[in-house]
From TrEMBL:
UniProt-listed InterPro entries: Glutathione_S-Trfase, Glutathione_S-Trfase_N, GST_superfamily, Thioredoxin-like_sf
A UniProt-annotated Pfam family: GST_N
UniProt keyword annotation of Ubl conjugation present: no
Catalysed transformations (reactions): RX + glutathione = an S-substituted glutathione + a halide anion + H(+)
Family: Belongs to the GST superfamily. Sigma family.
Name recorded for this polypeptide: glutathione transferase
Top-level taxon of the source organism: Eukaryota
Enzyme class, first EC level, given as a word: transferase
Keyword vocabulary terms for this entry: Transferase
The encoding gene: LOC117213881
Annotated ranges, domain GST N-terminal: 1-75
PROSITE patterns in the cross-refs: GST_NTER (PS50404)
Length: 98
């Protein structure tokens, strides 16, 4: 289960991975006005979080990298994996510049 607000934001690349792999998941969208009720139950009191085996895991890029490794999307070797990391980090840098 992916838990985030009703927005693309920091969860969208995780949704893309699920869409690309065809993995079914629950896309739980929390209305912002209900966030205070959820906040204390989320790791680091942040979203998005991916619930894995009943445990919420935060940090969207770490979650995306976990899924990419799990579903063999990290390339054929360490170089390919590094290029994937570079792309993810570059997208993060671009978003911060908005």
């Amino acid at each position: 289960k992916l838990i985030y607000f009703n927005a693309r934001g920091r969860a969208e690349h995780i949704r893309y991975i699920f869409a690309y792999t065809g993995i079914e998941y629950t896309d739980e969208r929390i209305p912002e006005e209900l966030w205070p009720e959820y906040k204390d139950s989320m790791p680091y009191k942040k979203l998005p979080a991916l619930e894995i085996d009943g445990k919420p895991v935060a940090q969207s890029n770490a979650v995306a990298r976990y899924l990419a490794r799990k579903y063999d999307l990290m390339g054929k070797n360490e170089w390919d994996a590094m290029i994937c990391d570079v792309l993810v980090d570059t997208l993060g840098d671009l978003k911060q510049g908005e």
